[in-house]
Amino acid sequence: MENKTLSDIKINLVEHSKINDIDFENLSFGNVFTDHMLVCDYTNGEWNTPEIKAYAPFTIEPSARVFHYGQAIFEGMKAYKDEQDDVWLFRPDQNYERFNKSAVRLAMPEVPQDVFIDGLKKLLQIEKDWVKRGNGKSLYIRPFMIATSSGVIASPSLNYRFCIILSPAKSYYSGEVKVVIADHYSRAANGGIGAAKAAGNYSAQFYPTKLANEKGFQQIIWTDDATHTKLEEAGTMNVFFRINDTLYTAPTSERILDGVTRKSLIELAKRENINVEVKSVLVEELIAAAKDGSLKEIFGAGTAAVVNPIAGFGYKDEYFELPKLEKSFALHLKEKLTNIQTKVEPDTFGWTVKI
Ligand SMILES: *Cc1c(COP(=O)(O)O)cnc(C)c1O
């Protein structure tokens, strides 16, 4: 991988920003994008000079590999603004490493650090006015890569496009979330691409989730594909279970995405003197705990919502309501983590990176 420096970035700024047309108090997640994006193409076996330019549609051949064979990966990160108007990233090295792991699994080229990290920092410097301060506001960052070579030939593309787009977000509230435990469909399988942040993992999830929605559940708790006995992820989030006063989350595997929020919450829980165990919880253990009252909480963990408490779960024909706690681990950990991310509390872990 050649090592380009930032001076190799081409920058073409828009003449008029659209920022004054945006109602930052009424944003629906992922619908509004900032003025600029970063684009970098991979051709003839190398990465070209990255370019920051107007966020706008781009033209790709209808036969491009991404449309036919699904070579597409992405990341999800956030930038936050502190009281001094400085902009911060949260553990960007983790997203960068995971992006390249996903790339390798999908037979795509790895993206150099100066394109991903330095390019992102440059883009954020340009778009810093789009990062708003206060109550859960952030700028959602979506790096992605697609296969652009033309030809309906079932082999890896020769050309790729890496791109970063930015979307202002307000605090995420999904309403009451009821989940159903998967007993037939699977999100991921051993030897598959479940540990990669691949677009195809999401499309595979849409139909079973639609069936769950029709039955009144917002999300699915995925189980292992072979036996459907181990609890693995909640929708597109990692999942934690609190039984008595211990938090459990499954170990990462080929079927479970190694979430940055998950691993940060494990560290944070330890610091907060919450007992946390990385161990698979079985469906039957969960049901037994729900029945004897020792199951206190279930929550999802991921960048978009940070922590998403779950109100109850269904399994086959039964439904189990979770207790409504005044002092939940979910909300305590969420507050602590967002306080670190937004620099309200000191970052004793060294997770935050200033732009
Ligand atoms: C992105 C994602 C997560 C959460 O990862 P974070 O790094 O915490 O945002 C969890 N599970 C799946 C399947 C995901 O795609």
TrEMBL record:
Tagged with keyword Repressor: no
Positions of modified residues (N6-(pyridoxal phosphate)lysine): 197
GO biological process, alphabetically ordered: isoleucine biosynthetic process; L-leucine biosynthetic process; L-valine biosynthetic process
Full protein name: Branched-chain-amino-acid aminotransferase
Named cofactor requirement(s): pyridoxal 5'-phosphate
Keyword NADP recorded: no
Reactions catalysed, as given in the entry: L-leucine + 2-oxoglutarate = 4-methyl-2-oxopentanoate + L-glutamate; L-isoleucine + 2-oxoglutarate = (S)-3-methyl-2-oxopentanoate + L-glutamate; L-valine + 2-oxoglutarate = 3-methyl-2-oxobutanoate + L-glutamate
Family: Belongs to the class-IV pyridoxal-phosphate-dependent aminotransferase family.
Gene Ontology terms, MF aspect: L-isoleucine-2-oxoglutarate transaminase activity; L-leucine-2-oxoglutarate transaminase activity; L-valine-2-oxoglutarate transaminase activity
Organism of derivation: Flavobacterium haoranii
EC number: 2.6.1.42
Free-text function comment from the UniProt entry: Acts on leucine, isoleucine and valine.
Keywords: Amino-acid biosynthesis, Aminotransferase, Branched-chain amino acid biosynthesis, Pyridoxal phosphate, Transferase
Xref: SUPFAM superfamilies: D-aminoacid aminotransferase-like PLP-dependent enzymes
Matches recorded under CDD domains: BCAT_beta_family
EC primary class: transferase
Pathway per the UniProt entry: Amino-acid biosynthesis; L-leucine biosynthesis; L-leucine from 3-methyl-2-oxobutanoate: step 4/4; Amino-acid biosynthesis; L-valine biosynthesis; L-valine from pyruvate: step 4/4; Amino-acid biosynthesis; L-isoleucine biosynthesis; L-isoleucine from 2-oxobutanoate: step 4/4
Pfam families: Aminotran_4
PANTHER family: BRANCHED-CHAIN-AMINO-ACID AMINOTRANSFERASE (PTHR11825:SF44), SUBGROUP IIII AMINOTRANSFERASE (PTHR11825)
Domain of life: Bacteria
